[in-house]
Structures are given as structure tokens and as C-alpha cells.
Amino acid sequence: MTQRIPVVAGNWKMNFDHLEATYFIQKLAWLLRDAHFNYKAADIVIMPPFTSIRSVEVLVEAEKMKISVGAQTVSETAEGAFTGDISAQMLAKLGCSYVIIGHSERRKYHPEDDANLVDKVRAVLAAGMSPILCVGESFEERRQGIELGYAVQQVSDVMRDFSDEEARKVLIAYEPIWAIGTGMVATPQSAQDAAGAIREYFRTTYGESVSESVRILYGGSANASNASSLMEGPDVDGFLVGGASLDAEEFSRIARLTVKSAKDRAHRAA
Ligand code: PGA
Q: Does a structural domain hold residue 2?
């Protein structure tokens, strides 16, 4: 099995102005340094609101933290008369490496559907960044027992026409909507079932090598108390963390536990 580097991405949503963001990063830098955190063992990503991205990057550089910065959405168009929008090129130039695409909150409150999600993924890839495509069922699909098919269909609707090289760079975040911000986390088994089904989709569509490279994250009330058990599933490669990413101590704990769990899992598999 390929060793995939786990990802712990903090989705701040609409929280922290640039001054609060600076304070958070200072604290996180101190906590990770104090814990002798091995930056090579995981990709740590902070995804602030647009207005805080630059401040976070300046401090990350100053503190010599090996973490990445990302954005929470992006325009599918390159430039022009699109008031209020931000292009992938602008984010790439700023130094962003990741962009969340199709978060359920964006799908709900903004006109984001499969067609423009495909264009957003394309725009992010063309700018040299990695999209984190969010999928996941609502309570209703789960009640009907169709959650796995639903999540896989959402992945397929967006991902079916990319090249192998493009598909390899995409990350998927399985985020059951009923678990987001509710404290109702998926069981490790259902997180693994969804991640496994999504990986199987990549295997049948793109082949073994791509499917073994794509990183599949879990999101939805992930925190330091459930991170280790959620990482037991062999197809879960880390987390997209919302609420718990706003607390530097909690976030650094999740990062450390994820690294430890990935290591333990690799030992068990060896
Ligand atoms: P949560 O959010 O961790 O607060 O549930 C996750 C997300 O929406 O990405």
C-alpha cells in the first residue's frame, strides 16, 4: 500500500479577522514547537477567510512553520466583471496551496452545483493548487440507507472527466451534513465505509495508482477525542476540521494524534 501523508486542514469558516488570525498562528507555532511536531509527517493546512490569508502567511513564514494555507472557495472564472469574486490565480499568487470546493455550506447558501464545481476544480488545478472537494449525505439519505451511493455519486458528478494526473492532485473530504457543527460525529466504521467507497470509485475510474494516491479526509465534528479512532479506518487520511480548528490547543492535539495514528496504522499494516 502507498504511504499517503495525512492531512489536517482547519476550515475557519467565517471566523477570525486578521488580528485574531495572527494571534492564533502565534499560539499554534508555539504549541507545535513545544511538542517537537514533525512537519514532514503530515500536511497541516489553515484555511482562513480571504481577508486573513495574507496575515496568516506572513506569520507562518516568520515562524518558519512548515504548514500550508488555503482558501474556502474560489471563482470558476479567471477574471472580469464578477463583483466580489476571487480567482484561483489570485489565491495561487498569494501562496495558497489548497482550496475547499463544494462545502455543504457553500452548496446551501450559494449557487454552487455540480457544473460550476467542475469548473472550480479545473481552475484550482490549472493554478497549481489542490482542490479539497467536499461531499456527504444529509440525514435524510442516511435514514434511507443510501449514504454511500450518494457520496460516491457526488464525487463522480464532479470528478468523472479529469486526467489521471489531475485526479491524483484532488483531495476528497467526506463530510456528512448531519455531523457538521453538531457534535454528532460519524462512527469510525461509517467514516471508513464512505472513504472506502470513494476510494473504490477512484480505482474503477482511474485505476489502482491514482486511487492509492488520492487523500480522503473525514469532516464533521472531528476533534481530539475522536481523531484517533476515526483514523483507524485504512482509507481515512486525515481531517477537515471546522469548530475544533478555532482552538489552537485542540487543533495542535488533532495534528499530533493524526500523525501518531497514521504511524501506528502503518506499523500494523507492515
Ligand atoms: P465541524 O465542521 O468540524 O465544525 O463539524 C467541519 C466542516 O464543516 O468542514
A: no
**Number of folded domains that form the chain:** 1
Q: Which domain holds residue 155?
A: 7-269
Which amino acid does the sequence have at 240?
A: L
Q: What is the 3-state secondary structure (H, E, C) of 11-24?
A: ECCCCCCHHHHHHH
Is 18 domain-assigned?
yes
Nearest residue by C-alpha to atom 7 in ligand 1: 242
Residue 245's domain is classified under what CATH number? 3.20.20.70
Residue 269 pLDDT class (50, 70, 90 cuts)? confident
C-alpha closest to that of 242 among 43, 104, 58: 104
Q: Which residues sit with their C-beta closer than 6 Å to ligand 1?
A: 11, 175, 180-181, 219-222, 240-244
Ligand 1 pocket test target in 7, 8, 11, 239 with most atoms within 8 Å of CB: 11
Give residue 12 CA to ligand 1 midpoint distance, Å. 9
Of 66, 69, 64, whose CA–CA distance to 18 is shortest? 69
* Distance linking the first and last C-alpha atoms of the chain: 9
1 domain residue, yes or no: no
Q: Which atom of ligand 1 is nearest to the CA of 220?
A: 5
- 3 — pLDDT class (breaks 50, 70, 90): confident
Question: 3-state SS of the chain: helix, strand, coil percent to 5?
Answer: 50, 15, 35
pLDDT band at 60 (very low <50, low <70, confident <90, very high): very high
Catalytic residues: 103, 175
